[in-house]
């Protein structure tokens, strides 16, 4: 059995990890770490676990935790993860971090977008970006995986094959994305209060959201040249789900079938990518509760442009599910172990 520890287990992404891992046949939930709920049973905080999981939350010494686990998931805020991870890595345990602290290839880019110097550039250089569809082989041999962000997973997966095949121009790409409110975490704020969000919809952090840099990092690798994008996130009144609508200029007179061939080449064997046939587009209700990313697109021949639509559940493929997918890779298990259930739909 794989002995798992989760730091930040009572946050929205952390508790989704707990939910998914209770169904994993190879996992023993060894330690659930929390600062705010020490000594309390997880089923007393999240009552959906009543009768299913009885496990007290602990505040643990990191060396003891590392010694009693084979892998530790850190599901903490940015800049908090990097306070604990160097110690865990030094103790020899595998770490999958859900924050942004180990996602970047460049400490300077992290500093520019997060406003703080990276605390450990040497460790950042050793970490692997945990998007299995793009970096599977590197992930298998990693000790530290930087699990991608939610908007970024949805957007990169939607555009990557077209840039890799040179079917769209790397210039003037627009990513317009909408997220449910769990993307902002469990701590309530004025912006995420029910009365602020319900029956409304708003763009935020326009032209300055930090996920811009993460999407650009991976799309630049795909295109083999620098890609800069316009990225506009929106908050909408639902709990889960992300829908990205992306606009890119075609480099030639390509048909739907031409572009579909590039997607099939890139994703033909992928367990979690679902390509929609011509005339069908993704919706968040198709993916919520699941680890799948649905992708569909329309070729606008009039404007020589493609409009790509992709959808994920921010808490699953956008966070905890993808982290479990990475764990499966790290331990040589079938990648879809405990993750193959379809979305909830309703
Ligand atoms: N929500 C989402 O859709 C996604 C989240 N992520 C990332 O995953 C990580 C966790 O996110 P999420 O679960 O949404 O966040 P939450 O705010 O819901 O949970 C974070 C948890 O971290 C613990 N914590 C420890 N130290 C601190 C601290 N100094 N300040 C606040 N919390 C602290 C808290 O638990 P306790 O007090 O018990 O220790 C808390 O429950 C973040 O880095 C986030 O950016 C990534 C992709 C998607
Ligand atoms: C709706 C909402 O607020 N979403 C978050 C993104 C959540 C996410 O993916 O997380 P990382 O912070 O780990 O990159 C935001 O815009 O900041």
Layout of secondary structure:
Blueprint: E1 2-7, H1 12-21, E2 27-33, H2 42-45, E3 57-58, H3 62-67, E4 71-74, H4 81-90, E5 94-97, H5 107-114, H6 121-126, E6 128-129, H7 132-140, E7 144-146, H8 150-164, E8 173-179, H9 194-197, E9 202-203, H10 211-223, E10 229-235, E11 242-249, H11 256-267, E12 273-275, H12 284-287, E13 293-300, E14 305-312, H13 316-330
Parallel strand pairs: 1-2, 1-4, 2-3, 4-5, 5-7, 6-7, 8-10, 12-13
Antiparallel strand pairs: 8-11, 9-10, 11-14, 13-14
The structure holds NADPH dihydro-nicotinamide-adenine-dinucleotide phosphate and N-acetyl-L-glutamyl 5-phosphate.
Q: Could you write a compact summary of the structure shown?
A:
The chain is an alpha/beta fold and 346 residues long. The protein is built from 13 helices and 14 strands.
């Amino acid at each position: 059995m794989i002995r798992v520890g989760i730091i930040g287990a009572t946050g929205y992404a952390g508790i989704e990890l707990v939910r998914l891992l209770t169904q994993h046949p190879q996992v023993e939930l060894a330690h659930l770490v929390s600062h705010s709920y020490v000594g309390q049973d997880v089923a007393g905080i999240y009552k959906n676990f009543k009768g299913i999981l009885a496990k007290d939350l602990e505040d643990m010494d990191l060396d003891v935790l590392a010694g009693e686990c084979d892998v530790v998931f850190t599901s903490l805020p940015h800049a908090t993860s990097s306070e604990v991870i160097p110690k865990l890595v030094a103790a020899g345990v595998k770490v999958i971090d859900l924050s942004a602290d180990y996602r970047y290839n460049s400490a300077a880019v992290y500093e520019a977008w997060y406003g703080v110097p990276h605390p450990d550039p040497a460790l950042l250089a050793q970490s692997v970006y945990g998007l299995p569809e793009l970096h599977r082989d590197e992930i298998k041999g990693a000790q530290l995986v930087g699990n991608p962000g939610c908007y970024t997973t949805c957007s990169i997966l939607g555009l990557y094959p077209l840039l890799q095949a040179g079917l769209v121009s790397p210039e003037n790409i627009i990513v317009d994305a909408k997220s449910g409110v769990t993307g902002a975490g469990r701590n309530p704020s004025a912006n995420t209060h029910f009365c602020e969000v319900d029956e409304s919809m708003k763009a935020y952090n326009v032209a300055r959201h930090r996920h811009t840099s993460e999407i650009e990092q991976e799309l630049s690798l795909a295109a083999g040249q620098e890609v800069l994008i316009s990225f506009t996130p929106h908050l909408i009144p639902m709990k889960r789900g992300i829908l990205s609508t992306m606009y890119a200029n075609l480099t030639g007179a390509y048909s739907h079938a031409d572009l579909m061939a590039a997607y099939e080449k890139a994703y033909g064997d992928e367990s979690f990518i679902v390509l929609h046939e011509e005339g069908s587009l993704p919706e968040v209700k198709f993916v919520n509760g699941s680890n799948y990313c649905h992708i569909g697109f329309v070729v606008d021949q009039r404007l020589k442009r493609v409009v790509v639509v992709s959808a994920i559940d921010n808490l699953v493929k956008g966070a905890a599910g993808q982290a479990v997918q990475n764990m499966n890779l790290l331990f040589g298990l079938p990648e879809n172990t405990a993750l193959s259930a379809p979305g909830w739909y309703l």
